[in-house]
């Protein structure tokens, strides 16, 4: 598949996330209260990877495969959370939001589905929360049996092993934002995987992971 088509897939994948995060819920009566935060914009080009780095998300023993598992099935398995939607057309974004209040610091995560994914989870966003933050109706506490939360390779908020940093292509002294991009094919489908991390003193304070395929 031409590079232009893959790049277009990547732009469309993130368009819904940026659109939902940019709207002020207080200015729209029907807008959800807890949209995922906008993806950070790195100053440096993304590190290009030779292999797809995105692994399934593990929530306790629940395995969430990006571009495979659906929001509906995941919501049913967890038994908590409110399906939310914002935007129209290619800007539409659906998500589930959860709070991990017993982490130190507390954490919030969003499982999102862009219009391209048609209900499949194609991105995960997670952030550290300030000490004053608490679970809300839109972002309830994640039930205990679905903890801990982490990707299958160990990626999550907090510290990282040397092996994981090397696998993700993170330099020894990264800036405050690190991003990587994988472009490839899965059969006849264009495949794009992107990871953006916000770091402080080597610790991941927020992460943004997307994985999507398209004809």
Task: Please give a handful of descriptors for the protein shown.
215 residues, alpha+beta, 8-stranded mixed beta sheet, 3 helices, 11 strands, 16% helix, disordered N terminus
Could you describe the 3D structure shown?
There is one protein chain. The protein is of the alpha+beta class. It has one domain (3-214). Helix content is 16%, strand content 33%. The protein contains 3 helices and 11 strands, in the order H-E-E-E-H-E-E-E-E-E-H-E-E-E. The protein has helices at residues 3-22, 71-78, 162-168; strands spanning 47-48, 57-59, 62-64, 84-86, 93-100, 107-114, 123-128, 149-151, 177-186, 189-200, 203-214. Strands 1-9-10-11-7-6-5-4 form an 8-stranded mixed β-sheet. A 3-stranded antiparallel β-sheet has the order 3-2-8, covered by helices on one side. It is globular and about 40 Å long. The N and C termini lie close together (9 Å). 38% of the residues are buried. The model is unreliable at 1-6 and 22-31 (pLDDT under 50).
Low-confidence stretches: 1-6, 22-31
Main sheet makeup: 8 strands, mixed
Question: What is the CA-based Rg, rounded?
Answer: 16 Å
Q: Kindly estimate the percentage of residues that lie in beta strands according to DSSP.
A: 25-35%
Query: Averaging pLDDT over every residue, what do you get?
Result: 84
Shape, per Cα inertia axes = globular
End-to-end Cα distance: 9 Å
Name the strands of the widest sheet in spatial order: 1-9-10-11-7-6-5-4
Task: Assign the structural class, choosing from mainly alpha, mainly beta, alpha/beta, alpha+beta, or little secondary structure.
Answer: alpha+beta
The helical percent reads 10-25%
Number of strands: 11
Number of domains: 1
Number of helical segments?
Answer: 3
Helix/strand order = HEEEHEEEEEHEEE
